[in-house]
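The authors assume throughout that readers already know how a fold can be written as discrete tokens. A single example would do more here than another paragraph of explanation. An entry of this sort, consisting of the sequence and the corresponding backbone structure tokens, reads as follows:
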Amino acid sequence: MRKNKLVSILAVAGLAVATLGFTASTSHAAVFQVRLYVSGDTNVERMWLTELIPAFEKANPNYNVDVSSFDLHGKNDALTLAKIIAASKLKRDAGFDVIEAGFVQELGLKGYLTIPTSSRMPNINNVPASLLAMSKGGIPYRASTVLLAYNSQVVTTPPKTLDDLIAWIKANPGRFTYNVPSGGGSGYSFAQTVVDKYLTDAEIEKLVTEVNKPLQAKWKQGFDLLKSLNPYTYGKNGTYPSNNAATLSLVSNGSVDMATVWSDQFLSGLKAGTIPSYWKVAQVSDRSLTGGPAILGIPKGTRQGVAAQRFVNWLLSPVAQNIIVGGTLNGYPVVPVSMLSTANQGKFAVGTDVSKLRSSYLSSNNTDFKNQWALEVPGK
């Protein structure tokens, strides 16, 4: 984690030496610190610390952005959500000025976010209205999706539908894997996609947009199917990789021939040479694996609200969007591709219409889903 770096610029209006009786005249240029909370994987943390924050601070010398808290895989999301709501009710500072986490939409639905306006953040005019509506008062700033990675030397034609994928898993025991949902979104996405097979579009929409405990009872049929796959997934005994990185390790060393992966992490692995070039990706066509925008939120009552909005506005600029697309993360932009550099415009072949990606459940439902999967699915 970065240590706070507060830079103070002293402007001296005239020479002053106390012993000679002169009066000192000084003024201090304002320094604005933005405290950032990040919930995600280590590649997201790396993007903030080594690329986005340094670029913003270079362009804005009197601004300091500090990752004041990093929550790996969002394990403390529920606790942090409760903390922010409690602080807001008491009109106290929660300790964060900008939040990147899966619970931002829930904060917006409950009325605890500063709603973005084009007067403060003019660059939101470049973000599709559908993405802004989906964000519930948050601000989308990048996106990615989960894809089906496959070894093209073994799999010449990847499964096109979810039923095809399930049939392939059963026909090729031990050659498919997904990580535990609590350890990362690529495994969560596969599990939710299977469970959604037994829900109507209206029911899925409710789970995406509102807290709905009664509807969670309908997950049982999907969990039963996932449990039935235990003998056919990698390990064949109901054990699963612990996180996204562990899944990618099995891909890289040839332990499996198919897995669900994040688009950005897969592309980064190909670029770095840790994933062999013969690995390809596809999307399940009838009910795509989940994906969508990563959303930032500015809590109401934050002590640096104006500075936070300036920072978020910069993240929607072509400069920042090119870093997101062309840097270590290999993310999707949330602004028109035409605003990117020529080199970055040609990177999108699979699932690039961010506004049409299938969403994960709302944060509270998401947390309950992970807990229920852990109880219902793994081998005992």
In short: Residues 35-142+298-340 form a domain with the D-Maltodextrin-Binding Protein; domain 2 fold (CATH 3.40.190.10).
